[in-house]
Amino acid sequence: MNKLLLQITLLVFTCSLFAQKKIEANQLQCEMLTNPLGIDVLQPRLSWLIKTSETELEQTAYQILVASSPENLAENKADLWDSGKVNSNVSVNITYAGKKLDSKDEAYWKVKIWTNKGESDWSKPAFWSMGILTYAEWKSTRWIGYNQLFSGDTVGQFSKLSARYVRKQINLEKKIKKAKVFIMGMGLYEFYVNGEKIGNQVLAPVPTDYTKNVKYNVFDVTNQLQQGDNVLGTILGNGRFFAMRQEYKPYKIKSFGFPKMALQLVVEYEDGTKETIKTDETWKFTPNGPIRANNEYDGETYDARKEIKDWNKVGFDDSHWMNLMWVQEPGGFYEGQMTPNMKVMDTVKPVSIKKTSKGTYILDMGQNMVGWLQLKVKGNSGDKVMMKFAESLQENGSLYIANLRDAKTTDTYILNGNGQEAWEPKFVYHGFRFVEITGFPGKPTLDNFLGKVVYDDMKTTGTFESSDETMNQIFKNAYWGIRGNYKGMPIDCPQRNERQPWLGDRTTGAYGESFIFNNQTLYAKWLDDIKYSQTLDGGIPDVAPAFWRYYGDGVTWQGAYIKVADMLHIQFGDTESIKKHYPYMKKWLLYMEDNYLKNDLMTKDKYGDWCVPPESLEIIRSQDPTRLTDGELLSSAFYYHLLQIMKKFARISEAKPEDIIYYDALANRVKKAFNDKFFHKENFSYANNTVTANVLPLAFDMVPDNLKEQVFQNMVHEIEVTKQGHISTGVVGTQFLMRTLTEFGRGDLAYKLASNKTYPSWGYMVENGATTIWELWNGNTADPKMNSQNHVMLLGDLMIWYYENMAGIKSSEAHPGFKQIIMKPDFNAGLSYVNASYNSIHGLIKSHWNIKRSMLTWQVTIPANTSALVYLPTTKASDVKVNRQRLASSKKDYQIKDEKLVLTLKSGTYKIEVN
């Protein structure tokens, strides 16, 4: 397999420059953002972040040194790469261009920069090591497992399989200098050395279609090993690998087999020799450990009476354990995992516990969350505590579980009776606010429970606060919903028997999420998931990885492949993902054209404008044709939009010039056919005049210039009059609604939609007790078959609008990754203040404005080595002060554009006042 197709450029380093008066007196301090072990990118990209108290600082040059040892680097012996002094202001995504690195090589690097304020010292060193780069190096490492059910195991609708406890005692005869373990544990694993769990990750590794690609993790275990006897131990859980309804619905859900693992422990001794310990048939296991069942949908059962003391330590007698067997590999190519694993990222204390009439207890966490409960309990051996998880309660106070479908969502703990016991599951997660506690010995209190919030290990990068409390709570709900649905891939919901990575849910959602979380590596990995799921003829599934065999051929869902890559470019300056995936995106576009483009219109659509507010509060999907948008209009408009993006991608990828000509010609044909068929001149509307039917051609620049204003005013009438100032769009239309309203001068109407409290609206969810975002606008009343209370697809472009249009934090497409920032808030939308921040790849951006008595006060922070175009609501320089100095007498650059005064500001913090 072509190694280039397997590269994912997710190695990101940041360095911080702390300057006071003289930049040359300070140091660069480097910090790793991601796990530097096991990189399988042949040319990783290096970045550094410049933090300084100096204003208007610009990098003018840099030099990178990369060495094979810290000693060489300390002596400036760059035996791997010396970039030399490079005259450039680029500080992110610098491609390593040194000697070719082989498997397991280590690289140590540092950087110095030159700026308009002086020269920096060398940074502190950073580090990365290469993974296993070829399949041949894994070939001699056998996959081991045991393809058999044991007592208590079942396969069917509610499959049960106990965890397999695996161990191997080894002897290391020499003094150890360095040791790393490379591990693939399917479906989930926890790894131990001499009784100590390695790493703080949970639910590892991240999920993939294991027949296409398998992720390995790498850990430095030097400090855990000792000369002499050692024990390597693994607990293998089921994850998505084994029987999440696969055997129950094999025609729909992929099946991968029984849990299995492959491992290499590479030990380097102080005398310079090396030894590699690998998995083979001498490894021992037992299925008779305490984890009796673990199924993502149904929960985990733990019998503490079956705990095996010291099973993962030297001296344990494993003579009664069975030998594992060599088993068939999963089938997918082996790749170093370049996105962080999940871990416990937060904790939540419950707010109340109440006894029910049937003697159980209802625990309220006060927040719809995703993860699990830690239980503390004291009782007799054999006492059984059951915890059933749900998002809401029925009127009688019992759990509402109808929306969970057939997911049992129950964890069970059986006590051993040895005093105070503490437990939490290892291989499941739940979406819940409420928990029914059954069988607790004695009377439980709040102190017996603690919520553990689990999602991908990524930094929160954005904050937002405004003068509107409803908008603030919506932001909080979005925050909780987004992070809860990051599970090594973006899933739709965390509670029912679905939890799938639907493409359509994140087509634009990924963009808004990127302001709140550093989701770059997650979505770069997801692009790989989509690529691996592509059929030979070019088709893309609705869900990727394709755990469900849904290949419905649409544009609005499958278009996420292109839109997410565009987001990575705009927000993170990532061009490598575009270059890597361009051939597959092009293949899909041609596939859709060949099969479904008729008379220059895209005729195939599967889901429509999914989840428009229905005519009845009790139904899921509207049957009213006046509310529904023509599927051909949706797919044709979206196809046109994607063709425009592909023109940009072709330039970035340095594709053949004919590609751009082809996209341009096809787009022009689609645009003409679209307007010929769907535009109605008599009332300046498209198709049946839904808001979605009009907002898409406006957002995609498909409306003739001389008709845009009329079409927009017609759309405004639909919102303000026909829909009485409420939202009427579904998943597709909502992706472009808020920004389009603001772009055409009606930010006030967008604000009304954002702050509404009556149905249908995001505020209606808040008013009805939501602490996350619902799947349906009527999620509190609709048929339970589809009313998840933790979905993010209906956010549309709301979070983008919060940041770009209300806070004024937007990346210039001409200078992506926030190298140039567009700061253009709509001060007239209706808010009186906004306080927001975003930690971009270039540094922290802040925007804090308020309006009092016709005075705008706006404090902005612009990171070092960037600039910003700052739009002010005036055309008079005499109305403006910058840092208490009148603009008219300052040396600040400005221009008048679109009836606004536009300042060009370089890095620093500025207080701007406008009368």
CATH topology category name of the largest domain: Glycosyltransferase
Which shape, going by the Cα principal axes? globular
The whole-number mean of residue pLDDT values reads 94
Main pleated-sheet profile: 10 strands, mixed
CATH class of the largest domain: Mainly Alpha
| Model regions low in confidence, pLDDT < 50 over at least 5 residues | 1-34
State the helicity in percent bands. 10-25%
Tally of individual domains: 5
Please give the oligomerization state of what you see.
single chain
The beta-strand count equals 49
Description of the molecule:
The protein has 915 residues and is of the alpha+beta class. It has five domains: 3-129, Immunoglobulins (Immunoglobulin-like); 135-339, Galactose-binding domain-like (Jelly Rolls), CATH 2.60.120; 344-453, Galactose-binding domain-like (Jelly Rolls); 462-807, Alpha/alpha barrel (Glycosyltransferase); 811-914, Maltose phosphorylase, domain 3 (Sandwich). 20% of the residues lie in helices and 30% in strands. The strands form ten sheets. Strands 21, 22, 26, 27, 28, 29, 32, 33, 34 and 35 form a ten-stranded mixed β-sheet that branches. Strands 36, 41, 42, 43, 44, 45, 46, 47, 48 and 49 form a ten-stranded mixed β-sheet that branches. Strands 11, 13, 16, 18, 19, 24 and 25 form a seven-stranded mixed β-sheet that branches. Helix 6 runs antiparallel to helix 7 (576-596), helix 8 (631-652) packs parallel to helix 10 (691-699) and helix 13 runs antiparallel to helix 14. The chain is globular, with a radius of gyration of 29 Å. The N and C termini lie far apart (64 Å).
